[in-house]
Design a protein that fits this description.
With 242 residues, this protein is of the alpha/beta class. The chain has a domain at 3-123 and 180-208 and 227-241: Vaccinia Virus protein VP39 (Rossmann fold, 3-Layer(aba) Sandwich), CATH 3.40.50. It has 9 helices and 7 strands. It has helices spanning 3-9, 29-37, 52-57, 98-108, 144-147, 150-159, 164-176, 185-193, 216-220, and strands at residues 19-23, 42-47, 65-69, 83-89, 109-119, 198-206, 233-241. The chain has a 7-stranded mixed sheet with strand order 3-2-1-4-5-7-6, sandwiched between helices. β2, α3 (52-57) and β3 form a beta-alpha-beta unit. The longest helix is centred in the C-terminal third of the chain and has 13 residues, at 164-176. The chain is globular and about 55 Å long.
């Protein structure tokens, strides 16, 4: 099993769950692995889009896996208290309306049910801009999205030799994407703390790119008023209980 599947299996409530939902299944690889390993459970994979890669995965579905094409922010079509366990991996940072999403998941979980998610990267970390954020050829300096305005980043990229079409594409991916929450670590924690859920586990993931020298520019021109402590955190592994 891949690391995503192994992480899900280790979470509180998974082994006892009868009905399991993955939010933001992408190519449906993780949920398919779990369905094959645990044939006694009913699995559901939800995503707003079915990519070519996802459709390839769907050619041979386990009998205990159902696919739902839908927006994760609107789950009212699912019966209340239907699921025992809900999870997501690298999805929560793509849901701008976090309060609404939490309300929806709370509604479809049974009392005592768990929502487990691994969120990364937060907007407030060194690679929170999400553009090629895990690749060595990323043209955006660490933390630049937090201290450079749009036109300032455009000028920086132009000076680095990128052509106008590439620059415009990067700017659109960083600032215009509707699927980024752009919430800091502290803002995310506040919204979750104010939800109806109880936080069972909140485990911060340290940003290994953090250094005092790198964040000096942010502290000089902190466009989003990011807490200095938030700059050190890449993501979080969270377990919520209804």
């Amino acid at each position: 099993m891949k690391w995503q599947s192994k992480w899900v299996v280790q979470q509180p409530g998974f082994l006892e769950a009868r009905r399991v939902l993955e939010v933001g299944s992408g190519a449906f690889e993780t949920i398919k692995q779990l369905a094959n390993k645990y044939p006694e459970k009913a699995f559901f994979g939800l995503d707003f889009d079915l990519s070519t890669r996802a459709l390839e995965q769907l050619s041979d579905l386990p009998r205990n896996l159902s696919i739902i094409k839908h927006d994760a922010r609107v789950l009212e079509f699912i019966s209340s208290s239907y699921f025992d366990f809900v999870f997501s991996v690298a999805v929560m940072e793509h849901i701008a309306e976090l309060e609404l999403h939490l309300q929806e998941v709370y509604s479809i979980l049974r009392t005592g049910g768990m929502y487990c998610f691994w969120e990364a990267p937060f907007w407030s970390c060194s690679i929170g801009h999400h553009f090629r954020h895990n690749r060595e050829d990323c043209p955006i300096p660490h933390y630049a999205h937090l201290y450079m305005k749009r036109d300032e980043l455009a000028l920086y990229l132009k000076q680095k030799g990128l052509d106008n079409s590439d620059i415009e594409y990067i700017l659109e991916r960083v600032w215009d994407r509707e699927d980024l929450s752009r919430l800091t670590r502290s803002e995310t924690l506040r919204l979750i703390s104010e939800s109806k859920f109880d936080i069972e586990i909140w485990e911060d993931e340290i940003d290994l790119s953090y250094s005092g020298d790198l964040v000096k520019n942010v502290l000089r021109n902190n466009l989003y008023e990011v807490s200095p402590d938030d700059l050190k955190i890449k993501g979080a592994k969270v377990v919520l209980r209804k």
